[in-house]
Amino acid sequence: MKLNIIIPTRNPKLDKFNLLSIISQDIPVNKIIIINDSTNKKLDLYLKKIISKNLRKIILVDNKFLTKSNIPLKLGTPKWNLGVARNVGILISLSYSNLNTKTLFIDDDIFFKEISRKDFNKVLKENNLLGKIFIEGCPDLSRLEWIELYLKIKSPFKKVQNNYIEKIYQYLGRNSVYLIKKYTTLLSGTSDFISQIPQRNELSGGAFLCSKSVLETSFFSNWFDEDWLWFDKCRVLKKPKEVYSGIKVLHNSKRKKILVLDNLVSEEYGKILTNSLKSKKQKNILEIVKESIIYRKNTIKVILFSFKSLKDKDKFDRKIIKNLEKLLSWLEKIKVSKLISDIRDHKELNKKLLKNKEFYLRNIREVLNG
After folding, report:
1. Which of 100, 159, 233, 270 is most buried, judging by how many CB atoms fall within 10 Å of its CB?
2. Which residues sit opposite 104 in a β-bridge?
C-alpha cells in the first residue's frame, strides 16, 4: 500500500518545521513531496542537506522543477499561494500513484503525535476516501475568528455568532486566554499552554488524507478557505466516505499577527469567493456573490457592535475596533466585477489543469527520472 505525503512549506522556522519528524515515522511512505513555496532562500541549504540523505524518498519541488515540467503554476509569490502549492502537490503525488495509493496533506508546522494502527490500516484499504485527522494545539481559525474568541473572553456571558468559537470557549473557559497568547499577537506575553481542542465539523486542508480517486477530482483555488471549497467539490463529484484516519497531530503554529488589515481583507475576500461557489442556491453567480458580500458585512457589523458596547475598553479593544471599521469600509467598496473575474479565472485554470493532467504527469516523470 502506497502513501505519498505532501508538505507545502513557506518560510518555516526550522524549530517548527516538521520534515525530520515525518521522516522518522514508522509508516509505509512511498514519497515525501516538499513543495517549496518560500520567498526565503535560506531554506534551500537546509532542505538539500536532508534530501541528500533520503534521495529515494524525498522529492523537492520548486519553480525550476515546474518550468522543466511545463506546468503553468508559480511558487514563491509574495501573496497567498497555498492553493497553488497544493495543486503542485496533487500533480506530483498523482505521478507516483496507482489505484490504491493514498495521499496525506500536512502543513509544515504540523507534527505527528499518535497513530492508531488499527484505524490507519483500515482507511488505507478504502478507495474513495476523505480521512479526517485529529488536530491538537493551534486551532485552524481565521483572523476574524481569533478576534471573536478574544471577544468571548471579554464578554463570556454573551453568545458570539460563530458556533465553533462558542465550542472552544465552552471547552477551555478562561484558559482560552492562554490559547490566544500562545498562537496570536492579540494579547501581550507568551504561554506554553497546549491543550486538546474541540474539532471542527469540517476537515482542515492543513492535515487530511485522501484516496487517488478523490485527489484527481479537482484542483484548489488560490484564495483563503481554498480547502473548504475543494472538499465541497470532492463531496459533490465523488461522494467519498469520510472517516477518522487514526492519526493525531500537533499544530505547532508560530504566533499569528491578527490585526494586519491586508491579511484581514485577504481572508474576507477568500471567504466571499468560497461561500459563493459553495452556494447551492438556484441563482446566477452575480446575485450569489452580492449575497455573500452582504453576509460578510453583517457578520463584521455584529462583532464591531459588540466591541463598541464593551464598557471598559483597553488599547487592544480600540485597535480591534479601528481595524474592523477599516475592514467594513473596504467591504463597502469591494468590486463585484473583480470577484466574478477571479471565479472565472479559477474555473478556467481548473479546467486547463484537468484537461492537460496526463501531459503534466508525463513531463513530471521524465524530469524526475532524469
Report:
1. 270
2. 5, 209
